[in-house]
């Protein structure tokens, strides 16, 4: 490995973050920039750190020294363009750091529905003292579509709340917090037994548009759907129709096909929908966790050791 490395980060960093990066070995330089001014640094950049939704392709084409691109996010949807797929450039992501805030967000929405908070908060605005129907999550079944690090954290919390946990996964493995695993082609079978369905899959060519009216019709009419993955894994018009027709009982949505969610979307005004502005993973501890993961990988990179979270650039995950 070269004795000097230039790292360009397309996000603000605190001094403690920069110090942690430069402490990996002598000769590391960290530059921080927004995408608009990154061209000032890109020609000399060896490692680029950016968010997975950032369009880095123009920078990539102007970066002759670039060896590694790291995503501060789990998603890498804008980082798998043809030129990087055809190259030896390493691509990694920040998978593994999102489970705590995202799982807490899922359960915040889930409990809001079962305790009627989606209705009670609206009533509070008009000083309306009126009891609403309530329920429990205890002994209900949660179906997790995509059992990665976020899905596992959701499963762990669900078992702690006395729930039955089922999930879909590409490979059949032993999962200590999952009562039953289904293969992806058994999705409808899993949906049929779930009281709560959580979409936690990465966005790929295979998962884009995977939730259609057909999938919602496979669910119980008393079931709730939650999307904390990417908006494009759901056909939003089909979900809206399923909610309007009572095909499913409700939905908690943190991601959408178009963001911000357009003001004329009917999802805004539905009593059986909770809308949050793509913030499930946001936490005051996010960058601390992301930088720690990057630093661990940087140490491995400088020592030519096996790295964490290497992305298959063709598959997209």
UniProtKB/TrEMBL annotation:
Residues 107-280 form the D-isomer specific 2-hydroxyacid dehydrogenase NAD-binding domain. CDD domains: 2-Hacid_dh_1. Keywords: NAD, Oxidoreductase. Residues 10-309 form the D-isomer specific 2-hydroxyacid dehydrogenase catalytic domain. Pfam families: 2-Hacid_dh, 2-Hacid_dh_C. InterPro entries: D-isomer_2_OHA_DH_cat_dom (IPR006139), D-isomer_DH_CS1 (IPR029752), D-isomer_DH_NAD-bd (IPR006140), NAD(P)-bd_dom_sf (IPR036291). SUPFAM superfamilies: Formate/glycerate dehydrogenase catalytic domain-like, NAD(P)-binding Rossmann-fold domains. Coiled coil: none annotated. It comes from the Bacteria. Belongs to the D-isomer specific 2-hydroxyacid dehydrogenase family. PANTHER family: 2-HACID_DH_C DOMAIN-CONTAINING PROTEIN, D-ISOMER SPECIFIC 2-HYDROXYACID DEHYDROGENASE NAD-BINDING DOMAIN-CONTAINING PROTEIN. This is D-2-hydroxyacid dehydrogenase.
């Amino acid at each position: 490995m070269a004795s000097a490395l230039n790292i360009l980060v397309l996000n603000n960093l605190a001094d403690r973050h920069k110090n942690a990066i430069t402490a990996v070995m002598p000769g590391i330089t960290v530059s921080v920039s927004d995408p608009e001014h990154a061209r000032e640094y890109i020609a000399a950049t060896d490692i680029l750190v950016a968010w997975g939704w950032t369009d880095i392709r123009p920078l990539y084409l102007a970066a002759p020294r670039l060896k590694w691109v790291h995503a501060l996010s789990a998603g890498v949807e804008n980082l798998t363009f043809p030129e990087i797929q055809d190259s030896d450039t390493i691509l990694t992501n920040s998978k593994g750091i999102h489970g705590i805030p995202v799982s807490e967000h899922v359960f915040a929405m889930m409990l809001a529905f079962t305790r009627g908070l989606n209705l009670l908060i609206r009533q509070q605005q008009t000083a309306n003292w009126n009891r609403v129907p309530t329920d429990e999550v205890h002994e209900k079944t949660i179906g997790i579509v995509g059992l990665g690090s976020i899905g596992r954290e959701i499963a762990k919390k669900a078992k702690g709340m006395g729930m039955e946990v089922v999930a879909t996964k590409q490979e059949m493995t032993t999962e200590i917090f999952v009562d039953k695993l289904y293969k992806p082609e058994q999705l409808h079978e899993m949906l049929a037994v779930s009281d709560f369905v959580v979409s936690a899959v990465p966005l790929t060519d295979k998962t884009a548009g995977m939730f259609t009216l057909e999938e919602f019709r496979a669910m119980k009419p008393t079931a709730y759907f939650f999307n904390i993955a990417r908006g494009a894994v759901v056909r939003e018009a089909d979900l809206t129709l399923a909610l309007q027709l009572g095909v499913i009982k409700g939905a908690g949505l943190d991601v959408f096909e178009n963001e911000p969610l357009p003001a004329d979307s009917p999802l805004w005004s539905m009593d059986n929908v909770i809308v949050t502005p793509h913030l499930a993973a946001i936490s005051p501890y996010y960058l601390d966790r992301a930088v720690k993961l990057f630093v661990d990988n940087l140490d491995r990179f400088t020592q030519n050791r096996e790295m964490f979270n290497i992305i298959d650039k063709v598959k997209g995950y």
